[in-house]
């Protein structure tokens, strides 16, 4: 009975130990310089982002200027091409024509030229006003005795109000045709205005003003 009641011996299973992986082992080391770089890295990265954004804005501004310059060139070419004389029209507006064996010449009449050659033809210059003013001055000069006889403060005649001479201002005729230099100047002004109105230029100005305030 005693032999049957005895328990079987316990056999312990041997487990294989995993080899230590020294390659991926983490070593914790306190380094003051590395800590400082990590903490100050936020500010550095912020400055880097700002610098990158400014460079991108500069590139956009260059592209905008290039585009406006090309548009101005195209506009200039169109304007110069529109001013070119058309040969068909020049033939119609020729100075001399051959009509049945006789040559007919066409001349432009100028009022100043006609006034120099012929006194009866020319531009009205308003000579009537000058003659009336001269007559009034002669009448005033012809009565010196009457002026001397009058006592101060007891004048019988009312003083004539002095007539203000009207200054005739000649308006310059508006220029319709412009030279190449003037066209280039106008286009340059327009391009500078359009560059200044662009959002990229305004953004760069804001950044510049903020830097100056600091």
UniProtKB/TrEMBL annotation:
Coiled coil (residue ranges): 43-74
Name this polypeptide is given: Nucleolar protein 12
Compositionally biased spans, kind Basic and acidic residues: 156-189
Gene Ontology molecular function: rRNA binding
Organism this protein belongs to: Lygus hesperus
Protein family: Belongs to the RRP17 family.
Extent of the signal sequence: none
Basic residues composition-biased segments: 190-199
Gene, per the UniProt record: nol12_1
């Amino acid at each position: 009975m005693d032999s049957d009641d005895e328990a079987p011996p316990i056999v312990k299973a041997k487990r294989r130990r995993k080899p230590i992986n020294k390659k991926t082992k983490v070593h914790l080391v306190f380094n003051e310089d590395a800590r400082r770089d990590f903490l100050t890295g936020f500010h550095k990265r912020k400055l880097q982002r700002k610098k990158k954004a400014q460079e991108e804005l500069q590139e956009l501004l260059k592209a905008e200027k290039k585009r406006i310059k090309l548009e101005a060139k195209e506009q200039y070419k169109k304007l110069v091409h529109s001013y070119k004389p058309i040969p068909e029209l020049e033939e119609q507006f020729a100075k001399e024509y051959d009509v049945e064996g006789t040559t007919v010449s066409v001349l432009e009449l100028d009022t100043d030229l006609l006034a120099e050659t012929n006194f009866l033809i020319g531009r009205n210059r308003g000579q009537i006003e000058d003659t009336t003013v001269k007559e009034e001055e002669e009448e005033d000069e012809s009565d010196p005795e009457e002026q001397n006889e009058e006592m101060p403060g007891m004048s019988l005649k009312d003083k004539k109000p002095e007539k203000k001479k009207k200054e005739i201002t000649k308006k310059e005729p508006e220029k319709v045709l412009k030279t190449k230099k003037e066209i280039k100047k106008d286009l340059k002004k327009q391009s500078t205005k359009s560059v200044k109105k662009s959002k990229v230029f305004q953004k760069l100005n804001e950044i510049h003003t903020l830097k100056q305030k600091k």
